[in-house]
Write a structure and sequence with these properties.
A 6-stranded antiparallel barrel has the order 2-5-9-8-7-11. Strands 1-6 form a two-stranded parallel sheet. The chain has a two-stranded antiparallel ribbon with strand order 4-10. About 20% of the residues are buried. The chain is mainly beta and about 150 residues long. It has 1 helix and 11 strands. A hairpin with a 2-residue loop joins strand 2 and strand 3 (about 75). The protein has one helix at about 10-30, and strands at about 55, 65-70, 75, 80, 85-90, 90-95, 105-110, 115-125, 125-135, 140, 145.
Length: about 150
């Protein structure tokens, strides 16, 4: 490598400068992003051991499914209560996830009096997160729901 004066730059010095510039750009990109919510933090959720979320939305707009994991404040929990914000991973879903510039689906997960309002849907690795708020009663892991 050479600089603007045509002087040689050692490769180690060039690499260090490049890595530093790349880190700074990533920070600027994240802080200046118009994306809402914790899309960057969602990468930190414990997803190991989960099977791929089965997407059935091309064939069905509604489906029955089971909750595999619930996250509140990015910590896995067994249940959430009325008014709680949460991220839910289902066995299968008809909700299309935000990816490639397309907005994620919104809708409702319902089982009896339990209603979880899905405000966004994102794909992280191999699973689809349903992000929203429980608007009635109590939601527990392993509960079965109808997607609307």
């Amino acid at each position: 490598m050479v600089d603007e004066k045509n002087d040689k730059i050692p490769i180690e010095e060039y690499t260090l400068g490049f890595d530093k510039g790349l880190k700074e750009q990533k920070l600027r990109s994240k802080s200046g992003s118009t994306m809402q919510g914790d899309v960057f933090g969602a990468q930190e959720l414990e997803l190991k051991g989960l099977a791929d979320t089965v997407f059935v939305g091309y064939d069905d707009f509604s489906a029955k499914t089971k909750i595999l994991k619930i996250f509140k404040d990015d910590q896995e929990v067994d249940e959430v209560k009325e008014g709680d914000d949460a991220k839910i991973i289902l066995e299968k879903t008809s909700f299309y996830a935000e990816q490639g510039g397309q907005v994620g689906d919104i809708g409702i997960l319902q089982a009896d009096k339990n209603i979880f309002e899905v405000e966004n849907t994102r794909k992280i690795d191999h699973v689809i997160l349903h992000i929203g708020k429980l608007s009635m009663v109590l939601l527990k892991k392993a509960a079965c729901f109808r997607l609307i």
